[in-house]
């Protein structure tokens, strides 16, 4: 079976997240609302929405009538992370490691430079999984999960 994430599901998810944000709670995007933005026909958007709903990226509300009138009530934290709107723990850690490396390069004190490099090495090396777990927990807690 062929992957549908890049060509179908992710573009639909991205469009739905953007439309929900643009509406700011005033309305909910219907599936027909993302046809132009994604370039997909309604049958492909419906398949994507069903897959995204099943994976709990979106909360899809099915109405009477055509599938084009189905709408998305909300999206999950994972949906926002998937489209790059919110950071993942891995992304935050990568940024931290990069900034520690940059700080080490700019540091004039050799002892402090060594500590910064060691911190970057630890965060990107053997302790990476521990850092990711801690950051994941902090992200979830800050988002009320």
User: What oligomeric state do these chains adopt?
Assistant: single chain
Distance between the termini: 34 Å
Question: Within the CATH hierarchy, at the fold level, what is the topology of the largest domain?
Answer: Arc Repressor Mutant, subunit A
What sequence of helices (H) and strands (E) makes up the elements?
HHHEEHHHH
Instruction: Write down how many β-strands occur, each being a DSSP E stretch of 2 or more residues.
Output: 2
Q: Provide a count of the helices.
A: 7
Low-confidence stretches: none
Sheet with most strands: strand arrangement: 1-2
Q: What's the name of the CATH homologous superfamily of the largest domain?
A: Winged helix-like DNA-binding domain superfamily/Winged helix DNA-binding domain
Query: How much helical structure, as a percent, in the residues?
Result: 55-70%
CATH C-level name of the largest domain: Mainly Alpha
Strand content: 5-15%
Structural class: mainly alpha
Averaging pLDDT over every residue, what do you get?
90
| Rg over alpha carbons | 20 Å
Largest sheet composition: 2 strands, antiparallel
């Amino acid at each position: 079976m062929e992957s549908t994430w890049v060509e179908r599901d992710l573009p639909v998810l991205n469009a739905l997240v953007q439309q929900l944000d643009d509406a700011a709670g005033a309305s909910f995007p219907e599936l027909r609302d993302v046809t132009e933005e994604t370039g997909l026909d309604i049958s492909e958007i419906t398949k994507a929405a069903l897959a995204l709903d099943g994976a709990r990226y979106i909360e899809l509300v099915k109405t009477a009538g055509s599938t084009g009138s189905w709408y998305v009530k909300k999206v999950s934290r994972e949906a926002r992370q998937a489209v790059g709107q919110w950071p993942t723990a891995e992304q935050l850690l990568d940024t931290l490691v990069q900034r520690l490396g940059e700080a080490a390069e700019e540091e004039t004190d050799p002892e402090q430079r060594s500590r910064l490099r060691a911190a970057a090495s630890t965060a990107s090396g053997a302790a990476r999984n521990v850092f990711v777990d801690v950051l994941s927990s902090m992200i979830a807690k800050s988002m009320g999960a």
